[in-house]
Amino acid sequence: MPRELEPYEKIERSIIKKYRKELWNPFVYAVKRYELIQAGDKIAVCISGGKDSMLMAKLLEELCRHSTVPFELRYICMDPGYNERNRRRIEENAQLLHIPVEFFETDIFEVANLQEKNPCYLCARMRRGNLYAKAQSLGCNKIALGHHFNDVIETTVMGMFYGAQLQAMLPKLCSTNFPGMELIRPLYCVHEDDIIAWQRHNGLEFIRCACRFTEERDSSEDGIGASKRQEVKALLKELKKTSPNIEKSIFNSIHTLSLDTMVGWKSGGVEHTFLETYNKKKALQGGRAMDAALVIMAAGLGTRFGEGIKQLTPVGRHGEIIMDYSIHDAVEAGFNKIVFVIRRDIKDAFYAAIGSRIEGICRGLGVKVECAFQELSELPEGFECPEGRTKPWGTGQAVLAAAGVVDCPFAVINADDYYGKEGFRLLYKSITSPAETGPMTLYMSGYRLGNTLSETGGVTRGVCVTDEDGWLCDIKETSHIVRRGDAADADGVTLPLDAPVSMNMWGLPREFMDLLREGFVDFLKENGRELKTEFLLPIYIGALLKEGKARVKVLPTGEKWFGMTYKEDTEAVRRAFAAFEDTGVYKAELFSDL
Asked: Sign of the C-alpha dihedral, residues 454, 457, 461, 464?
């Protein structure tokens, strides 16, 4: 005669027998599909006392018994301030179900209930933090929460209806405050109706929400009450009457989101817009998007950098150099021509490191690549390089060297500086817009001083003075700038960290080359026999400004600029690009999203 099963054994059997299709199968499916559990995991199963977390505990227990992947479970229950009745109900159910729960106390309800604004947000954050901390103290690397299929779709709909955003609930998350810890949701594919059916079949009574803000619930225990979530729950219940598959459609929609149809989105906290790639795609499809070139000044060695060519120093995890990221951001913004300004003596090293590779990538994107050479001897007719001069003629001559291959509006950047995506978007939009009447209009990306300082030593920056409409009035070249708390210091002079500065990122019309050529001739007439004086682009633009021959619109950007002014800056730059990849700003295969 077969042995009479214990109550907990009957409940366990109901999971894998009667409700196998409804509970066990979707649970196992989610674990496998989203790779929630790996060999060696130690998972803290978080018990709230409700039906969802109790079922999750039994499902994980069953999986742990039979899985070929070894992992451990610890069952924890945080008491946020339950009343005596609820605490006792949780203990009794844990005993009934043979769940070895470890309780620990907090004062979360007491603290959260004092907040009139956003008490639920505060409560959720405090709960999550306490659970992570407890799990970590037990040697766990993951916590498991009981959010189910309906929580997922309700959160998605609530975000659209009440939060004005398309935002889903992920099946797993990496903790930002507890390194090495993850959150997993094993019930991700399990429907709440099936959980309720299992609960009623076994005659189980679990606690409902114990918070005073969400006490109002329906007596049928289907979870419909008065909160915004309950409104959505009731709405979906009503819609299912005429559209039985509506919940499945919502769930599938967060797995098949088409970013190509999104006007805007966020990734890693960074906002993006469809305009980032629209102009490039339009050009590739034969549209009338205006041509624009990016001129990259890559001829200088950088005396403070030490030996080697700093422009070719790898900073990305996969060997990328700073120029790779600048080219990616420029093409993404709409630029369809790249012009490298280099010296002939570094041509072979340059092409080995980037030139040939970038040409291949850009060819596939419909972007043309040209090379121009900045040489001491290449001067306007009637001028010769003075004997003994080895110093380059400066950034003005570097840009002028590209005149023969630039036949459209263009932007100018330094090869060893990172400017961020926004600067390229702003410049492309500005230089490809219809020209205004009046003096020639030039554009400059204006960075906040605090976003451009080095942690290694003092820097020189062109601190800008603008009028109330954002037009440049003056650039003051300022040396030895270092951070001092909430401000910057330049030899005893205090500067605000939000002061706009020029980082040699310019947007210029093609006609500017004619002015630049005239300016270089005038410079050589006065300084052509000097051995070190340079024809610098910012200084020449400043002269044009004062003479009324041009005006400069400063385009403010909040992006963080960084470069390798000093050799010691390299590691900080590498860490920054690693963080960009981790947060989705850039793909591991850099150009794969273009």
From this structure: positive
What is the four-CA torsion angle of 533, 538, 544, 546, rounded to 10 degrees? -100
Shortest CA distance to 206 belongs to which of 9, 5, 53, 14? 53
Residue in the structure block whose two tokens are 């993404």: 332
Q: What is the pLDDT of residue 301?
A: 45
Q: How far apart are CA 338 and CA 362, in angstroms?
A: 9
Q: pLDDT for 411-449, tens place per residue?
A: 999 888 899 999 999 999 999 887 767 789 999 999 999
Contact by Cβ (8 Å): 384, 526: no
Please report the DSSP string for 230-276 in residue order.
Answer: HHHHHHHHHHTTT-TTHHHHHHHHTTS--GGG-SEEEETTEEEETHH
- Band of residue 462 on the pLDDT scale cut at 50, 70, 90: confident
Closest CA to 536 of 398, 372, 342: 398
Measured distance CA(151)–CA(499) in Å, rounded: 46
- Residue 72 contacts residue 60 (beta carbons within 8 Å): no
Residue 284 pLDDT more than 70?
no
Q: What is the 8-class DSSP label of residue 471? A: B
Q: How far is CA 331 from the centre of its chain?
A: 18
How far apart CA 70 and CA 81 sit, in angstroms, is 35
Question: Which letter, b or e, does each residue of 205-230 get, where b requires 16 or more Cβ atoms within 10 Å of its Cβ?
Answer: ebbbbbbeeeeebeeeeebbbebebb
For 542-576, how does the pLDDT look when each residue is reduced to its tens digit (9 = 90+)? Answer: 899 889 899 999 999 988 888 776 677 788 888 88
Is 398 within 8 Å of 291 (Cβ atoms)? no
Strand-pairing partners, residue 443, are 507, 553
Q: pLDDT by residue (tens digit) across 175-215?
A: 888 888 999 999 999 999 999 999 999 999 998 765 544 44
Flag whether pLDDT at 44 surpasses 70.
Answer: yes
Q: State whether residue 291 is helix, strand or coil.
A: coil
DSSP for 149-171, please give it. Answer: HHHHHHHHHHHHHHHSS-----S
Provide the pairing of β-strand 337-342 with 440-448. unpaired
- The verdict on pTM exceeding 0.70 is no
CA-derived radius of gyration, the chain: 32
